[in-house]
Amino acid sequence: MEKRAYIETYGCQMNVNDTEVIFSILKDAGYARTEVMEQADLVMANTCSIRDNAEQRIWGRIEAFNQLRASRPGLIVGIVGCMAERLKDKLLETHKVDLVVGPDAYRSLPRLLNAIGPDSPQIDVLLSRDETYADIPPVRTDRNGISAFISIMRGCNNVCSYCVVPYTRGAERSRDANSIAREACDVYQKGYREVTLLGQNVDSYLWNSGTESVTFAGLLERVAAIAPDLRVRFATSHPKDISDEVIYTMAAHPNICKHIHLPVQSGSTRLLEKMRRKYSREWYLERVAKIREVMPECGLTTDVIAGFCSETPEDHQDTLSLMEEVGFDWAFMFAYSDRPGTLANRTMQDDVPADEKNRRLNEIIQLQNRKSLERYRAQIGKRLEVLVEGPSKRDPSMLCGRASNNMMCVFPAAGRAAGQYTQVLVKDCTSATLLCE
Ligand code: 5AD
Ligand code: SF4
Questions:
Q1: Which CATH number does the domain housing residue 348 bear?
Q2: Domain presence at residue 263
Q3: N or C: which end of the chain has fewer CB within 10 A?
Q4: Is residue 33 domain-resident?
Q5: 132 Cβ inside 6 Å of ligand 2
Q6: Which residue among 9, 10, 13, 15 is best mutated to probe the pocket of ligand 2, counting the most ligand atoms within 8 A of its Cβ?
């Protein structure tokens, strides 16, 4: 009888995509996907290490998995993803999981699953220089069938001093451009109308076939050429690497969505240096100015960290003033979390007290809420093209879908269906949704 696998995914979109790759590998090993944990023969968490609270949440889930195993003998409990390498000993010894597999070792899952016995847990956390899972067709786990995520590279070479990713996911490598284009064609033929190209730093995408060399701008062109009604999005851009060529390529193709997620992290050049971001406040503002000069309607979103090592009240003010000046549509905002093994952890003091970090974070959040509302209000009266994704979550009698700039729009169904493009007129808004006709 076919066995069933249940996977919970934590962390970034990259992890969501990895889970889809894992389901594909498991399918070949005789496991079907289930969304009901209690029915599974294999339960796994695809984990995230980015901040301490992400890890803390997952320890609780492992306990729940282990409880289920106590009542379902033979159940396999596995931990995959970013926590695997970092915490393998604790996972195996203290938490008694059966399987620990790192982000580059998913191909060994069938072999490891076969080898698991009552007293022989299995582990593979080796990182690779070239694994991109290019030939593995992900089992799409999204529900809407409209918008697909395609991984274009893995790992990261920017050793930002606060970040665990280079340690958990290894060195950067780009995936074969032909296999990316094939995957995009394939999802288009299946009815998808939007692809998001994913990488830790898409601007440094570079793939050499021996005869040709494809940059990120080249890849964008290639995917945009698949069909005029296939939208192309991407994440994440790095302020030090986003090139004029990428900006002009976006501008030249109506189906490349006008939205850039451009994490700033801090508005203080002194802190940016300590973070090893390799750009200054001025450089960042110049990139934003360039984007807006070429694409005035481009949506801009960011990530911000409050209370990094040695951050003074003046540094914090620099972050607030940068956010005020740029006016992001939306931001992910975090209190700095010291991660074992990072450069900051080894060489700097995590010296901003927790309550001060949170106070600064709240100031940042309040400022951003005000800015988001301003940015969304500025859309009132505009006509936007929206790709219909499906019923709105709040009010299923309405439809929802994103505008090119990534703002979520809600509008009356009026005979439209998921996967169609429609023109809407923005009538009103909240700080996260445009209410349209
Ligand atoms: N503490 C807080 N936030 C972090 N991020 C990455 N590492 C940390 C950390 N140690 C944030 C950054 C990054 C986003 C994915 O997570 O803002 O852009
Ligand atoms: Fe994604 Fe980073 Fe979390 Fe890993 S640690 S899952 S790369 S956000």
A1: 3.30.750.200
A2: no
A3: N
A4: yes
A5: no
A6: 15
pLDDT digits (tens, 9 = 90+) for 386-400: 999 999 988 989 999
Which two structure tokens, joined as six digits, stand for 404? 């090119």
Q: Give the pLDDT of residue 110.
A: 97
- Residue 259 near residue 233, CB atoms below 8 Å: yes
**pLDDT top residue among 73 and 348:** 348
Residue 142 to residue 137: CA distance in whole angstroms: 14
Please return the burial class of 207, using the count of CB atoms within 10 Å of its CB with bins 0-12, 13-18 and 19+: buried
* Residue 12 CA to ligand 2 centre (angstroms): 5
Say whether pLDDT at 217 is over 80.
Answer: yes
In the reported structure, the alpha carbon of residue 311 is separated from the centroid of ligand 1 by a whole-number distance in angstroms of 15
In this prediction, residue 141 carries a pLDDT of 86
Question: For the CA atoms of 21, 26, 29, 31, what is the dihedral angle to 10 degrees?
Answer: -150
In 210-316, at which residue ranges do the beta strands (DSSP E only) sit?
213-215, 231-235, 259-261, 299-306
Of the listed ligands, the closest to the CA of 84 is 2
Q: Band of the pLDDT at 85, cuts 50, 70, 90? A: confident
314 in any annotated domain: yes
Residue 414 burial (C-beta neighbours within 10 Å; 0-12, 13-18, 19+):
exposed
DSSP character string of 315-382: HHHHHHHHHHHH--SEEEEEE----TTSHHHHHS---S-HHHHHHHHHHHHHHHHHHHHHHHHTTTT-
DSSP letter (8 states) at residue 94: I
Least confident window among 66-70, 137-141, 272-276 = 137-141
What the block records as the tokens of 153 is 């590279």
Domain carrying residue 227: 142-257
What pTM was computed for the model?
0.96
Element (H, E) at 133: none
In the chain, % of residues over pLDDT 70: 100
Q: Within this chain, do residues 391 and 366 fall inside the same structural domain, yes or no?
A: no
Cα atoms in the 13 Å half-sphere on the side-chain side of 324: 8
Over range 2-12, report the average pLDDT.
96
pLDDT in the model for residue 210: 87
User: Is position 319 within any domain?
Assistant: yes
